[in-house]
Write a structure and sequence with these properties.
The complex is a heterotrimer of chains A (121), B (450) and C (517). Chain A is mainly α and 121 residues long. Chain A has helices at residues 7-30, 61-85, 92-114. Chain A has a domain at 58-121: NADH:ubiquinone/plastoquinone oxidoreductase, chain 3 (Methane Monooxygenase Hydroxylase, Chain G, domain 1, Up-down Bundle). In chain A, helix 2 packs antiparallel against helix 3 (92-114). The relative contact order of chain A is 0.05. The radius of gyration of chain B is 26 Å and the shape is globular. Chain B starts with a helix and ends in a 43-residue tail after the last helix. In chain B, the strands form two sheets. In chain B, strands 1-2 form a two-stranded antiparallel sheet. A two-stranded antiparallel sheet of chain B has the order 3-4. Chain C is mainly alpha-helical. Chain C has one domain. Chain C is built from 20 helices and five strands. Chain C has helices at residues 11-33, 36-60, 77-98, 119-125, 134-150, 154-172, 179-211, 223-232, 238-255, 263-270, 273-298, 303-326, 331-351, 355-381, 398-401, 403-417, 423-437, 441-467, 482-500, 503-512, and strands at residues 66-68, 73-75, 382-384, 387-388, 476-477. In chain C, helix 11 (273-298) runs antiparallel to helix 14 and helix 14 (355-381) runs antiparallel to helix 17. Chain C starts with 10 loop residues before the first helix and ends in a 5-residue tail after the last helix. Classes of the chains: A mainly alpha (121), B mainly alpha (450), C mainly alpha (517). Chains in contact: A-B, A-C, B-C.
Amino acid sequence: MSLSPYAPIIGLFALAAAFSLFSVGAARFAGPHRYNKAKLEAYECGIEPSPQPVGGGRFPIKFYLTAMLFIVFDIEIIFLYPWAVSFDALPIFGFVEMVLFIVAVFVAYAYVWRRGGLDWD
Amino acid sequence: MSPSYLAQDPTLADFGRDPWWLVLIKIVFAFAFGLLATLLGVWFERRVVGYMQVRPGPNQVGPFGLLQTLADGLKMAFKEDILPKAADKVVYFFAPTISVICAVTALSVVPFGPMVSIFGHHTPLQVTDVPVAVLVLLACSSMGVYGIVLGGWASGSTYPLLGGLRSSAQMISYEVAMGLSIVAVFMTAGTMSTSGIVAQQGHGTELTIFGNSIPAPGWYAILLLPSFIIFFISTVGETNRAPFDLPEAESELVAGFMTEYSSLKFALFMLSEYVAMVTMSAVTTTLFLGGWRAPWPITIWEGANSGWWPMLWFFGKVIALVFVFVWLRGTLPRLRYDQFMRFGWKVLLPINLVWILVLSGLRSIEDWDSRGKLIAVGIPAGILLVATLFWPNRRPQPKPTTQEQVDNRPYGSFPLPPMDLQVPPSPRITRVVAEREPANIATGSDSREV
Amino acid sequence: MTELKLPSLDYAALAPILIMLGAALVGVLVEAFVPRRSRHVVQLTLALLAVLAALTMVVLNADDRLITAGQAISVDGPTLFLQGAILVLAAMALLLIGDRSVERGGAFVAQAAVTAESADDRRQAEGRNGLTEIYPLTTFAIGGMLIFVAANDLLTMFIALEVFSLPLYLLCALARRRRLLSQEAAMKYFLLGAYASAFFLFGVALIYGFTSGIPGRGAGVDFSTINAAVTESPTSPVLLFAGMALLAIGLLFKAAAAPFHVWTPDVYQGAPTPVTGFMAACTKVAAFGALLRVFHVAFAGAAWDFTPVLGAVAVLTMLVGAVLAVTQTDIKRLLAYSSIANAGYLLVGVLSPSRDGLSGTMFYLVAYGFSVLAAFAVVTLVRDADGEATHLSRWAGLGRRSPFYAGLFTFILLAFAGIPLTSGFTSKFAIFGPALDGGQAWLVIAGVLTSMVLAFPYLRVVVMMWLSEPGESTPTVTVPGGLTSAALMIGVLATLVLGVAPAPLLDLATGAADFVR
């Protein structure tokens, strides 16, 4: 009997999961437990921890922007992969189309760059 | 090129034929490789960095201090496991496991060697291979972000949250560069399976320089030098290693996303970091350094690429790459966050896209059989790339005048005292007081127009 | 590896689409590299030139009857007629969008991300120049609409739907004043639009499943395959009906037909008025163009099945639009409900299977587009210190203050009400006539009755403008600059000309009224 070539990936995944879950679980029992109120506070270099807003609060919009840019370029990459793998089977038209596609994404990229979307300060 | 040079290459058809016990052996082997690599990797890093800093490093526990990491790990297990009060219990509990699982699972498609015979079974020295193996690698490396960002978020504390956010932004930024640099590999190899990519790199290249023909390896690191450089840089960014270890920049964020973690959970994060480093070195070896294929001088020996020997070359290459990781850490100072993001988005990304276009253009118009032409383009392009990356920037940053800084302050800022305010010197003080510069005022970003 | 087969592309036939999308890309680059001061002029010129160039290509292609890009795009009579209509109306809308004489800095916000009602927001409303990103956005939307009416398979249609919807969602959020209302409008439009898109996609999936049942033919979502499946498929039509219903939901949402109309009043009210005009005119043309093609080409064989349902939707739409228009107190909401009612009349046209019905619908779309753009042009002019005065009570006595513009608006309202000698009369005639011939008398009766109901709110506004004394709060009518004046005049003249001499355009529409299958 032979397994699907994908099965070993799941096997390794399961082994790693078992190992790490065991470790995380074992940590509850292996170490000592001495209650100390200060120990369970959030760590902020020794000062009283600043109160956390409900739900984690707001963080800079830059992160959202980076996430959106990532999606744009990740989708570009998704289109590039099959094109690259079958590059030799494509006629010159495939190359031209991909140039157009990359240029179109590049236009957006130039816009974001010029508008400061890639700057962190 | 002798036929035996290629004879041992596994193809996709060779996978999925193993009996279950052989699969199990391979899985356990890959897992043990990951753990052992961590144990040795930490020791290796500490020794090498120690050597670079002219100090011995760990040398007490075991021969050459080899067991130091093991001792540390054991000690870690018997430390108190703290669950912070503000933490999101479930996510806090599972975040380290995500990191470890993702780092380890990536090893499943890394080819360690060619076809060998194990207990009478003719089988490739690789856990498995699938037509989309490189996508599995990418998926694992990007899923690893979850462990970090969730760990940071679930801690319910400010420093871990910032560390986790930084880390996610950093990893997705460098994943774009990484993903793009592999496009060139796919284009050249015509396949996404790791064993196929290694097989494709077996075709050597004859370089003709001044009439002498030199056999060079068909490694994509040479054929696609710019891709290799970008890939390696983004690997460093993806694994959060120095000089890109911003998520755990201790001078700014204490220990980043790991601040609230202790005991074995902390150990798991450390483990995943080192496994990821080793995995990434293995992936780089596979994609760009010919995988398990012997480098040139060894290939004079006919049997270099068959049997169990290639595993040795593979480990040699991985160790060399891990050494580069450590070397970088020992040498370079950490980047500032804005420099780091600028580097990823404004340097690596456009260069990558242009390089892909140039490469595909060359391949469209040229007959691909002449690899020398590509080398003739690629190597100068790579050198140019490195030169531009590391060319010192001597142009001074434009320094805004005080008035400009005042004007740029966001609406609603605190009132400023007049800039020409002269405090009359006290008659009792006779020494000359040094002239003070006005404080640097933060420029507001939202009132700026482009 | 096998050589991949490439679809053949007829670049001339695709030229209008390519020109608009290319211009939009150039517009983005202009936004990035041209200095801020000259962007407005450059962008407006670029967008108008692109529309003109695309229109020229449409006119040059006038005799094309072909399907290109591998069954994805069909360039035939209705496509070209509707593309031309979209481009002409879009040019008018661009004139309105580009006007900066009525309000300092234009009708658009200068910094969209500023918190609404904050001090920063008040300062940007004072007269900083508006965003110029609106031009690339509008150009993208126009390009998407051009694809939408030409799409010959459902996937292309979906892509086009998204291409023209996403810029519209954004444009809705960019009003200079009443930022919260504008943002709310955009949010509602976006969320509901996303649902409608999801319905559409789900419908595409079901239709695809249905077409897989035809013997001797592959599954597909291009219209000829669907048409063949509708007539030939031996499988149960449940998938077909479910898919058709979901597709119709997606399209009727864009067309603002009841019961998928609920976004319309809020979005029309919150969006910047030039954008509202653009949506009322061009989106309607695009949505009904797609509806016509889907139901006349793809599902022609199932006409007996969908006609009663769509007829009910039409009647409901007319009723909702007409009855709720009576209760409105805001001129933009009033026009929104009027646009809903008009969607109902247009659906009557869609349901006429004859060639005359098709040409009548296309004629109606053009005539209504001109009138509604002119109406919104007048709305931009009636202002006080806080921007546009849209509450109806503020319009009382406007006829005494500025008889000229009140006269123009009265004329447009009479056209909406369907008074003879206006395009409203001829276009309703062009739609109801074929419907009567086609045996849809019940729709015609409902249409005439609701028209009479709908005349009431129009006439109420007319009465209010002319027969009330101007009060303290009656706003003034700003004398518009060239751009708005041009748009207004084109709209009013077209309404008049199409009412007096509709024959040339009707002939053109009749000549164009056959689909390539």
